[in-house]
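Problem 3 from the worked examples.
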Amino acid sequence: MKKWMLVIVVIILLCSGVIWFVQHRYFYVQPLSEAQAIRHIETIYNGHVTQVEKQGNTFEMLFTRDDVKYAAILDVTTQQVTDLILKEGHSKLLLTEKQIRQMVKKEYGDVESVMLTDSIYTVRVENEEIQKYLTFDGYTGELLAEKKVEPQEQPIEEPIITEQQAIQIALKQLKGEVDSVDFEETSEGGYYLVEIETQEDEATFQIHAVSGKVLSVTWDDDH
């Protein structure tokens, strides 16, 4: 009976040794040194560590970010921050794009675009009466600058093909006398209507004022 108990004890000790080896080999995390802990906090929070104090398995570290002081409690074995405390100053939060749009719409009307650079919002407002660029503090919403934008008039595109050139293009299609020439404006540059008359025929040629291409020919059947 004692012999079996001894065997069981040996087995338990062996199993315990195996379990410890597996945990140490595959799950054990090497505790952070002070230098590693500082680097860990500065990387995560993009701040500057000013003071470190070790208490058992934790580091209590003071760090600053954007002129605000925080205290972070870091577990050296799990490498996890277990607590983060605001020590001094006020934590700053940027206004959201939605908040900026709502604020501007009340005062200036519809918002065309919003762009954030660093902590500054640039907003473009545009309607029938005004076109402006407005810049706001991204934290407080304070209006920093206001610039009026002069609307740019779209240049009227002059015909490349002159009236005389349009007549010559039409005469190449039909030899005769020019009865009339009219110009019609379009968003694509316009076109000429050149009416040519002969003893037997009468036709109207539609000629593109930019390319000079004959777009259509209309024959007068009553001639």
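Problem 4, a separate protein:
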Amino acid sequence: MKATTTAVKSAIAAGGIAAASVFAAATASAAGANIQGFGTSEQLVDGPLITNYTVSNLQQSNAAIPGYTPKGTLYQADITARSDGGTVTPMVRDFSARGPNGQTYKLIDKVGVPNGLNPAPIPQGSESRGALYFDVTGAPPNGVVYNDGLQDILIWTSNVPGASAPGAPNSSPVPGALPGPATNS
């Protein structure tokens, strides 16, 4: 079989377009997310339903979860879900922890967890508090992500751009983001 120059060029172009499309889709999913520091309230709007989530205190945990043996290191984060519009249902399973390398750690939700956020409906003006637990099997997480199944919507991180002390570089990028260029000091 003889390949023509035109066929080879077409195949190379198609491969380049496919690679660019994958990169653009990955960038677009992170680009639309609302990125804030831990302890900041982030609003999730679904038509007339408005839920304000606040995630804080992502740290290693020594909690015992009955019926669950971690494969890695157990982490937990505090969470508050508040209804600011309608009766909302916290979408607890949409939360994950994420490391600076992009590795995602799913929420432990197959068994009951101590002080976990109750997924019961919250009437307007009320709130529910609890904890989220993650089994971290790789790099320590530096963020918690709310993902709607298609893309990241809300991100809380210890590395919000511009949040460092003046002249102090962030130790790691926003969860899943590529590190910035090195600076000469």
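Solution to problem 4. Residues 1-30, 163-172, 178-185 have pLDDT under 50 and may be disordered. The first strand starts at residue 34 and ends at 37.
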